[in-house]
Write a structure and sequence with these properties.
Chain lengths: 110, 184
C-alpha cells in the first residue's frame, strides 16, 4: 500500500468524506507533509474503489454542485488495520535498531 | 480578458487529458473537489477566482501523470487500455534489449581488440560486466515505463506549493491578484 493510499484510507476511518475533505484531512494527518493534488487524489481513489476498499456513501448539494462522499468498506477497514499494524511493527524495529527504545535510550537521552 | 471561460469550465478542459471511461466516472467529483480547493467562500473573491484564475501547473501535472498511468493500463482499466499499456511496455523493453545487445557487441569487440593488443585474457571479465550493466539499464527503463507513479512522485516532490494562477493582464488582473488570495 502506498503512503498516499494509507493516508486516504486513514482520512476515511472516522467517517465518510468528500474529495476536498479528504485532501484537507490528509494534510492535517500528515502535519502538512502530504498535500494531495486533485489528480493524485482521484488516481488513488480510483485504485481503492477498484480494489473494493472504499465506496460511495451519499451525495449532498453544495453551491449548486453535488459533493459525493466516500466511506471505507469492511475490506478497507481491515486493510487499513493490517497496514497500520505492519507500519507500527516496522517502526518498532527501526527504533530498536537505532537504540531509541528501552532504558539505555532513556539514559542516553538524559 | 478571461477568454470567455470561467474556472469551472477551464478545469474540465484539463481533464480532457484523461481517458473517456475515467472522465465519465470521476469528472464531476474532480471538478467539485477542485473548485472546493480553489474557492474561499467570500462571494467577491470567488467571483474573481472563477473569472480570472486557471488551474495551477501542479494540478495540470497531477492530471497529466494520472493520464499517463491510465493510458498505460492500470488495474481496473478497460481491456483496450490494458492492451495498449502492455504494447507500450513491450515496445520499450524490446528497444532497450536491442540497444543493450548492440552495446554488448560493440564493447565485446573493443575488449577483444584490446586484449589481443595487450596480450591479456581479459575478455571474459569485460563481457560479463557489460551483460550485467546492460541488463540493469533495461530493467530500470522497463520499471519506469511500467510505473507512472514515478512521474507523479516527481511532480509532487519537485513542485513548490502554489494555487491556481491568474490569467488576465492589466487592472482586472491586479484587482484579482489582490482580492483572490488563491491566485498568485
Amino acid at each position: 500500500m502506498t503512503g498516499q493510499a494509507f493516508f486516504v484510507l486513514t482520512a476515511l476511518a472516522d467517517g465518510p468524506r468528500h474529495g476536498y475533505g479528504i485532501v484537507r484531512e490528509v494534510e492535517e494527518l500528515s502535519q502538512g507533509r502530504v498535500k494531495l493534488k486533485i489528480g493524485s487524489l482521484y488516481g488513488v481513489m480510483d485504485r481503492l474503489a477498484t480494489e473494493g476498499l472504499i465506496e460511495p456513501d451519499r451525495e449532498e448539494p453544495h453551491d449548486g454542485r453535488l459533493r459525493r462522499y466516500y466511506r471505507l468498506t469492511r475490506d478497507g477497514r481491515r486493510a487499513l488495520a493490517e497496514e497500520a499494524e505492519l507500519r507500527a511493527a516496522t517502526a518498532r524495529v527501526v527504533r530498536a535498531r537505532l537504540g531509541l527504545t528501552g532504558p539505555a535510550a532513556a539514559g542516553a537521552a538524559g | 480578458v478571461s477568454g470567455g471561460l470561467d474556472l469551472e469550465q477551464r478545469y474540465p478542459r484539463v481533464l480532457w487529458l484523461l481517458p473517456g471511461y475515467y472522465r465519465q466516472r470521476w469528472e464531476e467529483d474532480m471538478v467539485a473537489a477542485f473548485l472546493d480547493s480553489s474557492l474561499t467562500g467570500d462571494p467577491d473573491e470567488d467571483e474573481c477566482v472563477l473569472e480570472f484564475c486557471r488551474p495551477g501547473w501542479q494540478e495540470v501535472a497531477s492530471v497529466a501523470g494520472l493520464a499517463v498511468r491510465l493510458y498505460l493500463g492500470t488495474a481496473g482499466a478497460p481491456r483496450r487500455y490494458f492492451a495498449w499499456g502492455q504494447a507500450v511496455r513491450r515496445a520499450v523493453l524490446a528497444v532497450m534489449l536491442v540497444h543493450a545487445t548492440r552495446r554488448i557487441t560493440q564493447r565485446r569487440g573493443q575488449a577483444v581488440s584490446q586484449a589481443m593488443r595487450a596480450g591479456a585474457a581479459s575478455d571474459n571479465v569485460c563481457v560479463g560486466w557489460n551483460v550485467v550493466s546492460a541488463a540493469r539499464n533495461a530493467e530500470s527503463v522497463f520499471v519506469a515505463a511500467n510505473s507512472a507513479e514515478v512521474t507523479r512522485w516527481s511532480w509532487d516532490v519537485l513542485a513548490p506549493p502554489t494555487a491556481p494562477g491568474c490569467l488576465g493582464p492589466g487592472r482586472a488582473r491586479r484587482r484579482c491578484s489582490q482580492r483572490a488570495r488563491g491566485c498568485s
